Amino acid sequence: MGDFGQAAIIAKDPYAWLSEHKLHPESPDYPEFINPLEIVVKALKKEMQLPLPKKIKNPVEPTKRIPWKPGIDPESRLVPESIVPGMLEGDPQQRTDQPTPFGKPSQGEATFINFICDCSSSMDGDDMGILPGFTDCKRWQMVKVIITSLIEVAEAEGHYFQVVGYNQTSWEIWPGPSNEYDAARAFFMNPPNDGPQPFAPAGWTHAGQAMKYAYNKMEDFVVAGKLKVKSCVTFVIADEDITVGTPSDGDHSEFVGYWDEKFREYGPVYYCLTVPIDPDGNIAPQGAPMARNIPIIRRGLQAYYGNKYETEDCVTTFGLFWNPETDTTVGGGNLIRICEGRSNNRCGSKTSK
Question: What is the extent of the structural domain holding 75?
Answer without folding.
Answer: 59-99
